[in-house]
Amino acid sequence: MIRASLFACGLAAWALGAAAQNPLQVIAQQPPGSGSDAMTRAWGECTGRLMGRPVVVQNKPGANGILAINYLKGQPADGSFAMTIGMSQMTITPYVHLQMPYDPLKDFAGVAMIGSSPLVLVVPAGAGVTKLADLEKVAKSQAGGLNFGSPGKGSPAHLLTTALTDAMHWPATHVPFVGESAGLTALMGQQIQAMTLVLNTAAPQVKAGKLVPLAIFAGQRSPVLPDVPTIAEAGGPAVLARPSWIAVVAKKGTPPEVIKALNDATNQCYSDPVYANSMDKMGVTLMRSQPADVLGFAERDIAVWKPLIDKLGLATQ
Where does the record locate the signal sequence feature (predicted)? Predict the structure, then answer.
C-alpha cells in the first residue's frame, strides 16, 4: 500500500511537472478586442507569471462558443489546454438547441471562477431614446418590432433581451452577430436599435457619448455607471437581474494536480494589485473559488435559464 501511494504521488508530480514544462494553451471563445478576450488575457498573464509557465491565448470565436468548445474537446486532457467560458456557454447555449451540441456538466472539469460583471441594455446616441418607455414606442411603431443585436444565439444578451421584450409585450427581431465587437459597430451605426452588452464593453462608449444606457441587469447599480437604473428601477422585471460571469474550465479528465495549480494561481491573482486593478477597470467583481464551484454556479443558473428557454420557445435545430 505504501509503495502504491508513493508511486501514485510520484506519478501525480510527474504529470504536473510535465504539464508545467509546456505552454498552457488558453482558448478564448470570443474575438480579440472583446470583453471576454480582455479578461482571458489578464487572467493568463497573472496566472502564468505566478506559475512560471508560459500562457498562449488562442481565439476561437463563432457559434457563441461552440467552435471553441469543440476545439477543446478535440485536444488531449493532459493539462496543456484550458478555456475561459462564460455563463452563456455553461448555462444557456447548449439548451437553445434541440440536440445539445455539448453537455456543460459532463464535458468539462471546473478550474476556477474569474469574476462576474453586469450586463447593460444600451441604444445608440441620437436615437431619441433615453428610457425603457421610449424603446417601447420604437418597438411598437415599426414592422418587425425592435431590432436588437447580441453576440450570438444563446448568449446572455440574447436571452435577457428576448425575455425583456416578451415580458414587456414588445414585438422584436433578434439579430445575432459573431461577438460583441461586430454588434457594437452595427449598434453605433444604427443598423440595429438596441443591444445588451457586458459593462466593460458598454461603459467606455457611454462615457464617450456614443451610447445611451437604459438599464443594468443587476440587483444594484454599478459604481462604473452609477446613474444607470437597475432593470427593476427602469420598469422591467426584477427576475432579469442576473449578472454574467466568466470561469475557467479544462477538458474532463485533466489531471487534478494541474487543475489545483491553476485554481491556486487564480486565487492568488485575487490579491495581485495589478490584476485586481485591471479587472476593476473592466467592471469585473473578482470571485475566490474552488474547482467544484464552476459546475455549482452552472447548475444554479441552468435551473433558471432552461425553464425560461422552454417558456419562450427558443430551442431550435
Answer: 1-20
